[in-house]
Amino acid sequence: MLGNLWGRVRQIFSPTMAEEEIREYLEKLRKEAPTPVFWMVGKTQSGKTSVIRYLTGADRAEIGKGFQPCTRWSSQYRFPNDQAPLMCFLDTRGLDEPGYDPTEDSVRFEGEAHLVMVVVKALDHAQQNVLAMLKRIRDAEPKRPVVLVLTCLHEAYPQQQHPLPYPFATDAQLPADASGPLEALALSIAEQKHRFEGLVDRVVAVDLTLADEGFNEPSYGGKALEHVLLDTLPVAQAQNLRMLAVAKKGLRDVYARRALPTILGYSSMAGTAGALPIPFVDLILISAIQTRMLFQLAKLYGHPLTKRHLTEIAGSLGLGLLTHQAGRSLIKVIPGLGTVVGSIAGGVLATTSTYALGRVFCFYYKAMLEGQVPDPADLRRFYKDQLDQAETAWQQLNPTPVEKQA
Amino acid sequence: MSRWRVLIVACLILVPVIAWAGLGIYYLWTAGLVFIVWWPLMGCVALGYMLAWYWHRKQHLLKLPDFAVPIHWTERDQEAWRLVEKRAREAASVSPAKLSEPDFYYQSGKELAAELAAFYHPGTADPIANLTVPEILVVIELAAHDLGELAERHLPGGHLMTIKDWKSAHQMTKWWSTATTIYWIVSAFLNPLQTVTRYAASRIGLSEPLRMLQQNLFVWFYTAFVHRLGTYLIDLNSGRLRVGAARYRQLVTESRQAANESDAVIEKVVAGPFVGADSDPIDQVKQVTVALVGQAKAGKSSLINALLGEVRARIAVVPMTSCIERYELLTPGMPTKLVLLDTAGYHATGAQAEQVQASIEAARQADMVFLVLHARNPARQADVDLLDHLEQWFAERPNLKSPPIIAVVTHIDLLSPSLEWNPPYRWRQPSKSKEENIQGAVATVQQQLGARLANVVPVCTQPGHTYGIDEDLLPAVALLLEEARGVALLRCLRAEIDRDRIRRVFRQMVATGHAAAQIVGKAVMLPGS
User: Fold this and answer.
1) Which residues does chain A have within 8 Å of residue B345's beta carbon, measured at their own beta carbons?
2) What is the ipTM of this complex?
3) Global pTM?
4) Interacting residues of A212 by C-beta distance below 8 A, sequence separation 6+
């Protein structure tokens, strides 16, 4: 009795949680986090991977490795990692295999997939199987948005460059006076639109090629695709894409660019944790999420994280870092914990502070790997900058959450 | 001249020769030279013996009638042919006495017919009963015609041979031995000492090669007999002789001639599009019909234009061809006219089963199939399904031959690097990345459809960028031409039968009716007269 009471008191002053419990919570959080789930439908080599490559920035091999089987006919790819995905892609590879029955996938992905991307080569008119499957998907959830992505436009004008600027208006509409190679393409697109009429909500034409293919614009129509996705995704799920787009701007460093999706994935998850109405639990979870992020980032840089690095950063920043491993002592060391605890327990700060922490960690790690130990004052300044930037961006992305509800 | 006159003339001519021979021998004997002259002459005989033995062993004395399987035979026919060959091989173990009896040939023929009929109609109590009389007569006519030709061409003096000769052929050795026995008895009186040695030498010397020669002749004839009869019995059981002997021989000859026509100087000639099929089977035997099948927008019409070298088939970015269209192509280096059948692509939208059915229908009318595949669209389950359909259709009809299939991989210009088009591309030994990708596309097709294909050929049919047609596709076609011609001949025979059967029944009915009317007419008129 007395022991039990002591345990509760201890819990309040120095919160701990069993590793297993944390994992359970994180699993729950992962499901609740507004990760957009794209259901990719299309024939082999219709350009599905190119679309994923464009949206994530990951390379082909990485995507190929990332896909894990999830049903008999389908596999899924959580980007950038399984723990805190920023986006998720479902791919039905069985589409052209004999005996494929879409019912199984329809049931499994119902409610899970937020948007269906039908990827079709603009000039490929043999779409019997795709149509049949799309009809069933549409019937299962008529309200779920479906976007028709027409790919490989250059097949209409072989050995020629893309016409610039991108001539397509909304829903891959070409100007009426389209001439030359575009004339043939316009005919083909009209035929495709007619074929998929009533089954898709939006149409977009893209040609996403590798840089060494030599096209004047390797991401032809990429921006249009992004706009269509942001328009059609549910508001919460569109958030992740928006954050990625905003944060990507002005990032020159290759490592930082690669680390960005990881940081954003964990930030988004921390935001979800921050919105939990249970005191202390959120705090523990956020610290757990942040630690996991740091380990994940360290792995990206190719140097495993050690306790020394952790304390060094924690010491320099003096806040935000509530690591499970570094232990309770750290919490005691960090001044003004109370205020942090109070303010961090809100979705926005959880997100932005996690983001800023991730960014400052990258800054620190890069310097360290280059053989310098950054000045704590610099680290603090960088953290402050990132936090401010993230907050401004957040406000821009969600101008008035209240308004949206109304 | 009557027989005795011939005899008198023959005797008068022979008497001096025999007299000279006798006188010569007498002189040699009196001069004591018999022994010296005898040995070189016996040496000749010994050499003859050796050669006869050697050639007999290698069956070179009379070459066995060479036999190539007719090009129009199906798998089942070739299996049946093994039964025929087995029977032909048995000839070696049959005694010459038996081989000289006409009855033996009749018996073997009957047995072979029963054996083959049982092979083609397994499980039937009396398989021969199904055959029609005219067909059997056609077999006899064709086999007899062939044998006659063979005998005349290969047997020395074959055109003079009578049944009596035939029967007495194996008696000849007996006469020889009787004659020699008399000779030896006579000479033994004259010179008993030398006779013993000479007798021993000549026993080995002369009768043995004669016996061998005779055996060889019989085996040769029996094998030819079984082969010819077997060939036509197989055609009979497959139902191909219903066209009649004359028509059968005509179609086969036309087909053979078309194959041997010189390809010296042919101007490229193209014609089409025509809708529907041409009718005269003789024309069809002389040409090879190629059906182009494939998914919608795979590039079938573009391939036709590339082959013709002119824009004749309508092409567009959206599917265009809706029914089967015919084009004709005569091109240098190809001894046969190619008839191209352009079909509607399958697997687009709408009535799937109908389009697949139309493609299968076209493939069945064809002697060769181009399966047109888009290099950049590797989803090919629909093509696999089509080939499976086709395979099954032919498996259910063992009396038909399935056409050889060439996979034509189109749009290789779109393969990465897609902005580059700089032929020639040596994709078999790739060194550039485009060449590697072409080879990769071919390998993918081989992996997906491999066993069903006779060949895989990558081409580009983009107007102005045409590549791979003259370089790869036409040579691949030429390699398969013989096989395709076999399919054509078989198809024409079958078509002729189906068409003829109705016409013939009708004609026979009219003839019978006519005769009946005459009888009735006479019967009516009789009481009146």
Assistant:
1) 125-126
2) 0.74
3) 0.72
4) B417
